[in-house]
Amino acid sequence: MAAALSLASRYHAFTNSVFDGIGENLPGWSESLSELDLQSLWFAGEFGNEFTSMDGKRIMVRDFGIWNHAAGPDFTGCALQCGDEILRGDIELDPDVRDWERHGHGGNENYERVVLHLFMQAPEARMFTRTAAHREVTQVWLKPEMLRDAAQPRRMAEARLGRCATPLSEMESAQVSSLVEAAAQFRLRRKSEKLHALIRIHGREQAVYQSLANALGYRHNQRAFTILTQRLPLKVLLKHDAPEREALLFGVSGFLESVRYEDTEPETRAYLRVMWSCWWKLRNAYVNWLEEPNRPRWQIAGARPGNHPQRRLGALCALLDSWKKVFAALRTPKAWSRKGFTAALLALEHEYWSRHYTLMSEPATKSVALIGDTRVQEMLANVVYPLLVPERGDLWAEFMELPALLDNQKVRRAALRLFGEDPRARTFQKRLYQQQGLLQIYEDYCLEDDSACEGCPFPEKMKEWRA
Ligand code: SF4
Fold first, then answer.
1. Does 102 score more than 70 pLDDT?
2. Do 336 and 437 have their domain in common?
3. First to last CA, the chain
4. pLDDT at residue 159 in the model
């Protein structure tokens, strides 16, 4: 990775001071995330896997186990390393340390195997966690700074010319270009680190499946897709045939039970009949996840028909039907073929979802691609190249060739703030990697600035870059 992304470290050093302290003062960071979100982030390894317990012991999570869909602790079959000792058992995650007693876990035998209690909040007075047999459970307090990426606020900076536009316009194009490339490399390196950490926890195939599904979630439903794929891992789904897989995905997502059969058109009724014929046999095992607040939260209002999460889930079903073909290109770095991967995704079809946007919509007059060019590009930028570049350095050059297809409001806003009317604004948005670089600068500086550019260090820092 070092040789392939040599500019990433330079950008990191250039931006380092901006990162200091991010996350520590985020107001209400844990309140803004539901317990379900926190469990999902934990299970994705986003808090890391090495911790110091409340009594000062070093803890390493060796196995994150499985997300329990029955009554009892949140994660079962886990393994922790504590010094030379390996502790096997379950993990419980609560927003507040006091929830252990409030929810009656301390007197519940189902929690007897818990080896780790995680929480985000605690009162000043130390509270211990004990099981029904009066065994003390190791505690870890999860802090916002462990969760830098996920804690980043999702907001937009004002659409106006920024203070950095003047020094940027005075910089030679080659210097601006290298700054944008460095920011793009840094962005890819961070995505790589995150994805490879996920691979270490859950294996390559599950990590890729989860990440591709996350990309299908578009902007607003990424977390919901991640939760669904964490709860229905690939190895579970691939044991079932296609109708059962779809019943599981639409059942556990809550979509299947949210639709009244008699309100739908005939083709949908036929589709629902097939899914329900499987779902009623499987449903019992997942009933715990169908109740609030355990259901994934889908954001549907304002979504374009093509981006409706039901249709995206239909695309995921089609992707799973062709999983071997899709994953073949990603199994090893040597196997990579952009042409093969792209063609496999663009060719995905589904008898029902190729002609429907939602379970409530009338069929479209003609078939519509389930995964289009823009979505493929999102997957290339967020999954494929972050996966492969650290393993095959020459792929950075291939990534740099990709044209920009994304029509991203944030990219447009970043270009406006950094370049204004400068004709070079377009030059620096032609390629996908350039868009990624602009997004990184925008997030690192514009979104961290609350002084209307006045206190932003970027304009002055550019002198360092020139030097
Ligand atoms: S916040 Fe900084 S980087 Fe963003 S437009 Fe203003 S000066 Fe430029």
1. yes
2. yes
3. 25
4. 83
